Amino acid sequence: MAKQDDDRPAAAVQSVDRALQVLEILAALGQAGVTEIAAELGVHKSTVSRLVAVLESRNYVEQVAERGKYRLGFAVARLARAGSAQLDLVKLSQDICDGLAGEVGETANVAILDDDRIVNIVEASGPGEIALQTWVGQSCPAHATSSGKVLLACHDEAQLRARLAEKLESFTDNTVVDIENLQRELADVIDRGWSFVTEELEVGLNAVAAPIRDAGSQVVAALSVSGPSYRLSEDRFTEIAKLVVAAADAVSRRLGWVERE
């Protein structure tokens, strides 16, 4: 019995690999039937039929007018658009981050929301003596970061509660762990147009962030500046926020956003 359990992960991995190969075959051929795909994969037609049925149920493949032929479905295009949009954001924001980091003298990041966490996709280091240990690809809890608060602020109460745990994780004495208190903070973020954290994720670390919007005025990312609390002190937040908002708006305009008066 243990042997069967051990075999299941390997079989699942093989199925995933074959499903990806099916997508690659359809991408190369444009359209193909089960027999053609089976020949390309070197497997029985029944195996391909099962794979195609699953892919079709998730809209990754679809049948063409000619019965029995399949082509890539709209779900593949949706993933491609999402990936392209993220790559565009990286390309369009890097030089602005570089300029902001140089002007402020601290580290600048662009982050996107991933469930209840943020992921940094762009980084520019400031010339300060102490470099912050942040890296592109690192994820952080959204509720304890300035970027996360900007990105969470556009969610209504139901969306927020669905995304976050009822009791939020604490990292320092300043971390907001009550979701109702967080909601009040997020309302202030919307009114103010930017967010800040004071040693909420890490003792001695402060940050200020502003939203990046796309052509439809949707908040798609956040641009932040972070630094040691002795340099990026609370009395500098308003001054720094003006620069961060201006930089975030510059990225937004590159994405097609037009400010409404």
In short:
The protein contains 8 helices and 9 strands.
Written overview of the protein:
By secondary structure, this protein is α+β, with helices and mostly antiparallel strands. It folds into two domains: 2-72, Arc Repressor Mutant, subunit A; 81-254, Beta-Lactamase. The protein is 48% helix and 20% strand. It contains eight helices and nine strands. It has a six-stranded antiparallel β-sheet with strand order 6-5-4-9-8-7. α1 (2-29) packs across α3. 30% of the residues are buried. Residues 1-6 have low confidence and may be disordered. Residues 75-257 form the IclR-ED domain.
Key descriptive features of the protein:
alpha+beta, Beta-Lactamase, 2 domains, 6-stranded antiparallel β-sheet, 261 residues, Arc Repressor Mutant, subunit A, single chain, 3-stranded antiparallel β-sheet, disordered N terminus
Total of DSSP H or I helical runs spanning 4+ residues: 8
Query: What is the CATH superfamily label of the largest domain?
Result: GAF domain
First-last Cα distance: 68 Å
CATH topology of the largest domain: Beta-Lactamase
Largest sheet: 6 strands, antiparallel
SS-derived structural category: alpha+beta
Question: What is the 3D form?
Answer: elongated
What is the H/E string? HEHHEEHEEEHHHEEEH
Question: Which percent bin holds the helix content?
Answer: 40-55%
Round the mean pLDDT to the nearest integer and report it.
Answer: 86
